[in-house]
Amino acid sequence: MPEVSGSGHNPKRFALLITDGVDNASSIPPEKARELVRSAQVPVYVLGFDSGSPYPLDEQGKKVYRYADVLNLLAATSGGRYFSVSSTEGLNSALASIRDDLRHQYVLGFATGDGADRFRRLEIQVPGRRAVLFRRGYTGPPPALSGGK
Prior knowledge:
This protein is of the alpha/beta class. Helices cover 26% and strands 15% of the residues. The chain contains 3 helices and 5 strands. The protein has helices at residues 30-40, 67-78, 88-103, and strands spanning 15-19, 44-49, 82-85, 118-121, 137-140. It has a 3-stranded parallel beta sheet with strand order 1-2-3. Strands 4-5 form a two-stranded antiparallel sheet. Helix 1 (30-40) runs parallel beside helix 2. The radius of gyration is 18 Å and the shape is globular. It starts with 14 loop residues before the first strand and ends in a 9-residue tail after the last strand.
């Protein structure tokens, strides 16, 4: 019988969204979708089939809005990543990257103090390392002050 992801000693949970990125049937706006993903507290890895790159600029150097932008933001908000996939090789590469991310995952924790529950932004800095994937925030009271300060 397969093990449920939350029942292991060190469970690693994530969601995998496979899409062409075209929103033709949703009943909620992208902002609400990001909030739902944020509240799930799992990284979301998005495989965008032919949904393009979220990084191109037009001739004047201005951002070109695409479906990929919405998908990239959804993934980044959760601590996951967006992959534009247009071939079998691209799919294999994306899945290998996801596997590597999950193999090298750490859990960081902290205590919270007293105060109102609201969305709190997080920032993680690792000197001398490449970009770190992490959830961009949490909903709850503020972090506790260390050392009684």
